[in-house]
Amino acid sequence: MTRIDTQTRTLTSTVTETVTQSAPAGGVPAPTPSKSSSAAATGTPSPTATAPAAPPEAAAATATSDSETTWWPWVFLALVVLGMLGWWLLRRRRDQAVLEAWDERLRGSEDEASWVEDSLTSQVLARTSTAEAQTIWMAAQPRLLQIDEDLHALTGDAPDEARATRATSLRTLVLELARAVSSDITTEPGTPEQFRARRAVIDYARQRLRAALGPVDPAAGPMDGTPAEAGS
């Protein structure tokens, strides 16, 4: 019993001294260490604070805002496409207008070439005297020169190669016929063989020009301003 009492008194004295040494001056007890301090001291990680979840109204507002800010690229793309389509349509219309204007000029020159082959040449060849034939031919020279100039301009203004070739070919055929007729009326009659040879050249040139122009339209009727009418 004496040994147990001695141990009890020793333990009590030790605890009292420990409490007395740890207490601050003035008798105010030391603050109790917090859980986080204890956890830091013991090496145990403290739980991470979780942010509160956004309310459903805020999430819906965010989704609506995102959807409203993604429509403008599509509108911009649509405007670009519409602009390109409009530009293409305008260019196509302008190109079509250029083609139609050129084709209309060519039709006018073709009518004039048809007049040379069907009307002028026939009138010149039908005259019994060289003087009368030369009078008709000389009266037609300004018109023939205008036809040549128009076809030359059409060749330079042609919007494509096919149209340029058409104008060039037509001009060449008209010139061949004009030269054949001019050679016939400015040359002495000569022998019958020579006369027939010249007329054969004229007939060949007329056939080639008529083949390029197509058959004569009977509904068109005689053209105004022929040299015969001017000289009569």
Plain-language structure description:
There is one protein chain. The protein has 232 residues and is mainly α. The protein has a domain of 115 residues. Helices cover 76% and strands 0% of the residues. The protein is built from 9 helices and no strands. Helix 4 runs parallel beside helix 7, helix 4 runs antiparallel to helix 8 and helix 6 runs antiparallel to helix 7. The chain is rod-shaped and about 95 Å long. 12% of the residues are buried. The C terminus is likely disordered. This is DUF4129 domain-containing protein. Keywords: Membrane, Transmembrane, Transmembrane helix. It comes from Terrabacter terrae.
Outline the secondary-structure elements.
Layout: H1 2-22, H2 35-42, H3 56-68, H4 72-126, H5 130-139, H6 141-157, H7 161-185, H8 192-213, H9 227-231
Radius of gyration over alpha carbons?
56 Å
Q: Indicate the multimeric state.
A: single chain
The major pleated sheet works out as: none
Classify the beta-strand content into a percent band: under 5%
The helix content, as a percent range, equals over 70%
Helical segment tally?
9
Shape: rod-shaped
Uncertain runs are: 18-49, 228-232
Q: Terminal Cα separation, in Å?
A: 174 Å
Report the order of strands and helices.
Answer: HHHHHHHHH
- How many E-type strands? 0
Mean pLDDT figure: 76
SSE-based structural type = mainly alpha
